[in-house]
Write a structure and sequence with these properties.
The structure is a single chain. With 162 residues, this protein is α+β, with helices and mostly antiparallel strands. The chain has 2 domains: 118 residues, Beta Barrel (Small Protein B, Chain: A); 32 residues. It contains 4 helices and 9 strands. A 7-stranded antiparallel β-sheet has the order 1-8-9-2-7-5-4. A two-stranded antiparallel ribbon has the order 3-6. A hairpin with a 2-residue loop joins β4 and β5. The mean pLDDT is 83.
């Protein structure tokens, strides 16, 4: 078996994204970071809460992503919440721009991870959920959890000798 990437788990994740949005499509974008930012991100010091992406002049930017300053970095610690450029193909940016022009659609950052030594951001195209949609999703999840619990209990009862 080949060497697995040591960063299979996300370095930062937006857990509220699936709660607040219906994610319809996802894209992988590169991020332009400084040396101390990537070191801090690898230490798990990134936060995607209240983060959003915008498109300006044919380029995509990530706003409000907090990357804590790297403690061992003696120089160049930029603003922790500065706007960071995202690297996407021009065709993808134009497609995202067209989708977000539609009412109710937005670009939602989902998670940050390392792939082949580069920091990547998974962004999704999401449509905002209404309050009743959130309740429906929660009720569906609760019913699935109850069904799984009942099935586990039945398996425990039906297995003799355990």
């Amino acid at each position: 078996m080949g060497k697995k990437d040591q960063f299979d788990k996300p370095l930062a994740q937006n857990k509220k994204a699936s709660h607040d949005y219906f994610i319809e499509d996802t894209y992988e974008a590169g991020m332009v970071l400084t040396g101390t930012e990537i070191k801090s991100l690898r230490n798990g010091r990134g936060n995607l809460n209240d983060t959003f992406a915008t498109i300006r002049n044919g380029e995509m930017f990530l706003h409000n992503m907090h990357i804590s300053p790297f403690e061992q970095g003696n120089r160049h610690n930029p603003d922790p919440t500065r706007a960071r450029k995202l690297l996407l193909h021009k065709v993808q940016i134009h497609k995202l721009l067209g989708i977000t022009k539609q009412e109710g659609y937005t670009i939602v950052p989902l998670k940050v991870y390392i792939k082949n030594g580069y920091a990547k951001l998974l962004i999704g195209v999401g449509k905002g959920k209404k309050q009743y949609d959130k309740r429906q999703t929660e009720a569906k999840r609760d019913s699935q959890r109850d069904i799984q619990r009942i099935l586990r209990e039945k398996q425990k009862v039906s297995i003799p000798g355990k």
